[in-house]
Input
Amino acid sequence: MRRLLQFTIGLLAASLALVPAVADDTPAFEIVAELEQGPGNITVTPSGDIIVSLHQFFGNEVRVARVGADGQLTEFAADANLDSVLGLQSDANGVVWMLDNAMRSNGKQRLVGWHADNNRMITDIDLASVSIEGSFLNDLAVDPQAGTAYIADPASGQNAALIIVDLETGEAKRVLQGHISVQPAGTDLIIDGKAVAIRKDDGTTFRPRVGVNPIALDSQGEWLYYGPMHGYTMYRIRTADLRNTGLSDAELATRVEHWAGRPISDGISVDDAGNLYLGDLARNAIGVIGPDRRYRQLIADPALAWIDAFSFGPDGQLYAVANQLHRTAVLNAGDDATTPPYLVIRMEPFATGTTGR
Output
């Protein structure tokens, strides 16, 4: 519970100063599956398997699962002994990378690579050396060509940071800790007229602030896009700079770019044309930031209750989950107001994207 409070005291946000324009070519979304268990994040493998993490806020027993055509869930990577997974991403080789934040047991944070088709462990990287008190390893972006994973750790807000992992050696480093680009802004997240709030053990409540969470690579692996969940700016930095062990944190900080304004968001993804898709949490919406660096809202619908992740499939569609996270007891001042089913959706993006991302 202590780690959960430390994470969420670093979590979410609310009404926007931005006034998004709805595009004339507004895409529609399609419901792919209705789930009885609350998902966390989503990835789609090159063979078309839809894999979801099952969010610990719902108390799910299964950690990661395949989604069947009828919405039934089949446990994935059962032998990996996963504790708590949110972030996951498939690569072009069919390896699903799963970020175990160990929140349930206060155990060892890990990055696990599991081959989806062969059902076997590829690698298991211990991240204890780059985790701190209050770490909540939440989401990741993986570039197998560069042999690198980039991890968002919102921690307790002020100590938020990015973590860079060498997938071959398992070596990892913690960078940009406390930088403005990873720290949350002091704003509430208000959805459907109600502020997200956490009830403490003494019965009082507080409105959380979350540091770096949305994180994604462009299709070339040149730029990493990221920002705090509670924030109105999308930042980016060259991945070559993040991998450069010769740069100090102060030098690295000078390489961070203020890329665009945006709403409070959780998951993001970038297509081959440079469009960045995101969940507009306060508006139950999906939006996009184009190469012109301007945000516009694409789809708004009450069914899009907390868009938590995006992933391109081999069919060219962009997949996401709507998991009602703000209605869970954890984020709704102790009262569970969730109403299954939870949704897996997809939409046609403006351009193709890298499968799994």
Residues 225 and 236 are 4 Å apart (CA to CA).
